[in-house]
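All the exercises in this workshop are built on plain-text protein records. A learned vocabulary of local backbone shapes supplies the integers on the structure line. Once this layout is familiar, the rest of the handout is easier to follow. An example says more than a description, so a record of this kind follows:
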Amino acid sequence: MALELDVLKLCKFVKKHEEPNLDSLLHWMTEHMYLTGLYYGIMLSQLLGQPSLLKSPVNSIQQCYDQTSGGYGGAPGYPAHALYTYSAVQLACLLKEPTLIDADKVVPYLWSLVDPVTGGVRGDLYSDIDTRFCYCVLGALALLQQLDPHDPRCEPVRQHLLACQNDDGGFGLFPDSESHAGQTFCSLASLALLESLDGLKREPLLAWLQQRQQSDGGFNGRPEKTSDSCYSWWVGASLSILGCKDSINTTSLERFLATVDSQERGGFSARPDETPDLFHTHFTVAALGLLPSPKVDPVHPVFCLPVSALPEALQ
């Protein structure tokens, strides 16, 4: 079965997430992730060529700003976190509203999350170090055009990231932790931003990434796991960063994605016969923007943004 992207149905799926359902348990379980969900929705609307699909989120973004720290929380009243600060910066790029982010306040907050000795990065002042947060901090700094790879503060981060690569080629949350496709993308994108891809163990990394594509055409996140649509992005973008996107069997991948395309509800699910959600829909459509797809705008593999949304210096 070939993948036939139904843009109208996808837009309806995205639109129905715009207004909160206060009677839903899911709403209260995910309220703290509101800002990133907003990024998913605006990103999808632009990738699908419908930039006016959702109402302007500018006020909502501003309400998530934490004046005490200088970062952004996941929803109004929540404390600042690296992930949601990155989402706010991504949204500013999508909206072409660079003045929405006060770099003079956000940049010091982002650097405060970096351990100047070990180079590890925390999501907030209380969480553990994690390569995902390293990516969020560096990505936000780069989009704000406030990242200099030659800044001495970057060297411990660079060494920490390289130490997170395992003998099998993949990267983990921190040194000596299990390789995972999500962490591999975050580490690769971070090293690309630091202009340090030449420090990688490239051959085992490529082999590990290529082994993630399964017999059903989809990608898994680590060995012995089933395929999941979101890894189409994490693995696909990683291979794109390495200049090896052509190693993806795109015909098989699209055949797998057709099985997780909800013809009834719109959107994409993680696996066949599961409920579609905004997270997996966003990363599936973003992956299609890497292939490329005639119905999806081209996507930058490091920033997970439409190439057209990036500051000119980063395109």
